[in-house]
Amino acid sequence: MGGVVLATGDIAPDRDNPDECFAATASLLQGADLVFGQLETSFADHGVRLPQTRHAVLSTPKAAAAVGKAGYTVISCAGNHCLDWGPDALRATIANLNKSGVAVIGAGENIAAARKPHIHVMPDGTRIAMLAYCSILPHSFWAEENRPGCVPMRAHTVYEQVEHDQPGTPARIHTYPHREDLAAMEADIRAAKKEADLVLVSQHWGIHFVRAVIADYQRDVARACIAAGADAIFGHHAHILKGAEVIDGKPVFYSLCNFATDLRMTPEHAARKSFKEIQVLAEKWEPNFDSLYNFPEASKRSIIARLEISDGRITEAGYLPLYIEDDAVPRVVDRDDPRFMEVADYMKAVTEEAGLNAQYSVRDGRVVIEGVR
């Protein structure tokens, strides 16, 4: 008997009753055999905000309990918000999730703890190892031998002047992976593959809010992951959907967009230079001060990645279309709802615009990626 793995986008409950965030999806998540998500906040009673943070929201421990009740099995804390509220808040977040029955990957008391995979056994005995990495890193948010933090998969950026005789003209942007981080990640995956039949990797990476574009380093990291033995990659951070591709028969989801992410906004915040600078990256982004979901218009379209697992392999990969309105509650969209094809058409478009190779088909209320083996 096989099983189902579900992976959601970023989660950050920030309301009095965090159970509301999962009201429309808890039954779906609870019915899966393994449910994974990316955390964008801290679940702690208190913390000290670090000066290098940009946007930091401190959620309460009861939000961790809501994540557990919703059906999550594993959460990645490998993200650019892992140390927003300091190392004690990170420790509390991990402890509160563990107390709620949720394993944490990608972050820990030191780099050895952060690199440790979570092993999950499916109903048919298939062993799945999960690992998580982060390329979006405020300074010193990465773990070291004696410092808490997350697992880094850093990248470098080089700006090449295209027209050397034309001062002020746009530059060509090149990105490439940090060699030591890449080698360490490859070693992690090879080691995990010795312990498990399948290795699933989370990557917190990419260019936020900009339609379709995939950075060069992401493609390099994705190929390296698959070559080292990874069987699927779940991408996070962009807060909009990005395309997918199939590498050697393995699915790569470059961005799953958001899931249960509360984001309020005030007129004061909307007027800040820091917000204005990122607002222009999106196709359409108008603040709504009465909304719990202040993201670009494109962020309403989201997905849950879905894998069918049997006898130690992935037999099907695809996604369930979601829609997220101003109440910030994600809802699965039925096949007869026009928004189903709105999400599917958007995924197809951004996949093609990025030059990715994923081909999609609709099957029984879900979208399947062809060519996965």
Question: Mind sketching the topology for me?
Answer:
Blueprint: E1 3-12, H1 26-30, E2 34-39, E3 42-43, E4 58-59, H2 61-70, E5 74-76, H3 86-99, E6 103-105, E7 107-108, H4 111-115, E8 118-121, E9 127-134, E10 149-150, E11 155-161, E12 171-177, H5 179-195, E13 198-204, H6 216-228, E14 232-236, E15 244-247, E16 250-253, E17 258-261, H7 267-270, H8 273-279, E18 301-310, E19 313-324, E20 330-332, H9 338-353, E21 360-363, E22 366-369
Parallel strand pairs: 1-2, 1-17, 2-5, 3-4, 5-6, 9-13, 13-14, 14-16
Antiparallel strand pairs: 1-18, 7-10, 8-9, 11-12, 15-16, 18-19, 19-20, 19-22, 21-22
Question: Descriptors for this entry?
Answer:
373 residues, alpha/beta, Purple Acid Phosphatase, chain A, domain 2, ten-stranded mixed beta sheet, six-stranded mixed beta sheet, 24% helix, globular
Residue share in helix: 10-25%
- Indicate the CATH topology: Purple Acid Phosphatase, chain A, domain 2
Largest β sheet strand count, sense and barrel closure: 10 strands, mixed
Structural class: alpha/beta
Number of E-state strands: 22
The helix tally amounts to 9
- N- to C-terminal distance: 18 Å
Compute the average pLDDT. Answer: 97
What does this entry look like structurally?
The model has no long low-confidence stretch (mean pLDDT about 95). About 25% of the residues lie in helices and about 30% in strands. It has a single domain, classed as Metallo-dependent phosphatases (Purple Acid Phosphatase, chain A, domain 2). Helix 2 runs parallel beside helix 3 and helix 5 packs parallel to helix 6. The chain has nine helices and 22 strands. It is globular. The strands form five sheets. Strands 1, 2, 5, 6, 17, 18, 19, 20, 21 and 22 form a ten-stranded mixed beta sheet that branches. Strands 8-9-13-14-16-15 form a six-stranded mixed beta sheet. Strands 3-4 form a two-stranded parallel ribbon. The chain has about 375 residues and is an alpha/beta fold.
